[in-house]
Write a structure and sequence with these properties.
mainly beta; 14-stranded antiparallel beta sheet; 3 helices; 9% helix
Amino acid sequence: MTRVGYAYDSTTNKLLYTESHHEKYNDGLLQRSEVIYKDPAENIFASKVADFRNSQFMPEFALENTLTGHVEKTRFIDNKYEVIFSESKDKTRKESQIIYEDSAISDAGFDNFIIENWGQIIEGKKFKRDFLVPSMQEFLSFRIYQDAIVNKEGQSLRLINIEPDSFFVRVIAGTLKLYYDSEKPALRVFEGVSNMRDSQGDNYNVLIKYEDVKSQILSVNE
C-alpha cells in the first residue's frame, strides 16, 4: 500500500515537505515500511526504513536526513533496544542500549497499536504505554486515548491523543493529535511534533494530511 502525507507548518500553513509511505504486508500484518521525504521542489532530502517483523509496535528503523545529518536508528540486541541518535552533522552521535517493556512503542508502531486496539479505544478505554524518545534515548510513559469526534479538514474524524503522562514533559513536548476515519482505523491527519528537523536541529510542528495513492495490499514472502 502506498500513501502520501503533505506536511504543513502548523503556524504558517506553508508546505514543508511530503512523505511517501510504501508499505508491504503479509497476512494483513505490516512487514516493512519505506518512507521517502521530499521538499516542495520534489528533491529527496531524507528517508526511513522500518522493519516490523520482530514487533508490530516497536520496529527496528533507520532514519537519515542527508541535508542536515539528523540520524535515528534502532535495532534489537538480545533483550535490549539499541538507539543511535544524531541531531545534525555538527552534533556528537549518541548510542545506547536500553531495557524495554514488551508493550512499549516506538516510531510508527503507534499506528499498529491503535489499529489493534481500535475497538477499546473508541469505546473510551485509555491506555498507558512506554514510548521511545530517540533524542533522549529512553522510553517515557505516554497516554493514548480518544478525545472526541470532530470536523477536521472537511471530514468527520476521531481525534486520538498521544501525550506524555507527566504534566511537566507534556508542557514541553505537547500532545500528538491523530485524526482517524470515524468508521475505521485509517489515519487521515497528524498534528504535532514531526520527526523531521529544520536546519537548526529543531523539530517541525506540523499538520500532515494523508492521501491513499494505491489501495492494494502487497504480500511479501520474507
